[in-house]
Design goal:
The structure is a single chain. This protein is about 40% helix and about 20% strand. The chain folds into 2 domains: about 1-100 and about 255-340, 3-Layer(aba) Sandwich (Isopropylmalate Dehydrogenase), CATH 3.40.718; about 115-245, Isopropylmalate Dehydrogenase. The chain has helices spanning about 15-25, 40-45, 50-60, 85-95, 115-120, 155-170, 185-200, 210-220, 230-245, 285-295, 300-315, 330-340; strands at about 1-10, 30-35, 60-65, 100-105, 125-130, 140, 145-150, 175, 205-210, 225-230, 250-255, 260-265. A 10-stranded mixed β-sheet has the order 2-1-3-12-11-4-5-10-8-9, sandwiched between helices. The longest helix is centred in the middle third of the chain and has 17 residues, at about 185-200. A hairpin with a 4-residue loop joins strand 6 and strand 7 (about 145-150).
Length: about 350
């Protein structure tokens, strides 16, 4: 039996998780174990990720996550636990170094994007974000009137994420850095060039500075195929790219590593302001389920069926509130299930 660990998390996480599991069970025979994670785990155990939950994740075939965080657990005290520590911990504990965030402009939602149709039409890109290095994981210090965060990258970390990007490319790879200022970016660029020249010489490669990439993502996003970049830049650019789809509620993600299970989650946050109201958009969770089916369980046909069901529901007029409509979580779930 295929084993899935579900981490509903906080805010709207449990709501979209329940809908996501309905869709998953409609196309695959799975055994699901749910565990407290993030803020919910802090409330129960005083820590965002327990050793028992991490062990369960390691034993699973794939991990599905809702969302974490909320004002209840916000703190600037470095000695107090934060929900995000659970997310960083599970990524590190499972060796998940590559975050894949597909961004596709869906014709039915062209009018939902704040960008004009002629700018976003034809956009179908993939952001490949390095997930376990960089400033998020570097040594941190805090003094009375100063603070520092170390940004550290190794050659091996850059090599392995570059290979993921080149293997995923259809038209070419855009490597995003800040090599005119940062030493880590200069190493990044050198290593990406070497991996390209030695292993993927037939894949077109370009280098774009991160500020220029941010501008081009809103001015001409269709020019991109695969964007590969470091942890913080990838975090920012992938959220910016969400506006191409009309809502961050439409973006799925997959975090992959070596031999262990992958982690699949919507890009959106826990949205505590709408939690418990039944209005959360579950479509990014459904598309994350599709990524789980494809990359976690090698069930390509089932993944395509889920993606097709989402597209057909949108073509048929389904619109949640973030997309300018009135459909709630339950209505959106029923519409997609109907096409499955």
């Amino acid at each position: 039996m295929t084993r899935i660990v579900a981490l509903p998390g906080d805010g709207i996480g449990p709501e979209v998780m329940a809908s996501g599991l309905e869709v998953l069970r409609a196309v695959a025979d799975v055994e699901v174990q749910e565990h407290a994670f993030g803020g919910a785990a802090i409330d129960l155990h005083g820590i965002a990720l327990t050793d028992e939950v991490l062990a369960a994740c390691r034993d699973a075939d794939a991990v599905l996550l809702g969302a974490v965080g909320g004002p209840k657990w916000d703190t600037t005290d470095p000695s107090k636990p934060r929900p995000e520590q659970g997310l960083l911990g599970v990524r590190k504990g499972l060796g998940l170094f590559a975050n894949l965030r597909p961004v596709r402009a869906i014709p039915a939602l062209y009018d939902a994007s704040p960008l004009r149709e002629e700018r976003i039409a034809g956009t179908d890109l993939l952001v490949v974000r390095e997930l376990t290095g960089g400033i998020y994981f570097g040594e941190k210090e805090r003094g009375a009137d100063s603070a520092s965060d170390v940004c550290l990258y190794t050659t091996a970390e850059i090599e392995r994420i570059a290979r993921i990007a080149f293997r995923a490319a259809r038209r070419g790879v855009t490597s995003v850095d800040k090599a005119n200022v940062l030493e880590t970016s200069r190493l990044w660029r050198e290593v990406v060039v070497r991996v390209h020249d030695e292993e993927f010489p037939n894949v077109p490669l370009e280098h774009v500075l991160v500020d220029n990439a941010a501008m081009q993502l809103v001015s001409n996003p269709a020019r991109f195929d695969v964007i590969v970049t470091e942890n913080m830049f990838g975090d920012i650019l992938s959220d910016e790219a969400a506006m191409i789809t009309g809502s961050i509620g439409m973006l799925p993600s997959a975090s992959l590593g070596g031999e262990g299970p992958g982690l699949f989650e919507p890009v959106h946050g826990s949205a505590p302001d709408i939690a418990g109201r039944g209005v959360a958009n579950p479509l990014a969770m459904f598309l994350s389920v599709a990524l789980l089916l494809r990359h976690g369980l090698a069930l390509d046909a089932q993944a395509a069926a889920v993606e097709s069901a989402v597209d057909r529901a949108l073509d048929d007029g389904l619109r949640t509130r973030d997309l300018g409509g009135e459909a709630g979580t339950a209505q959106a779930t029923a519409a997609v299930l109907a096409y499955l």
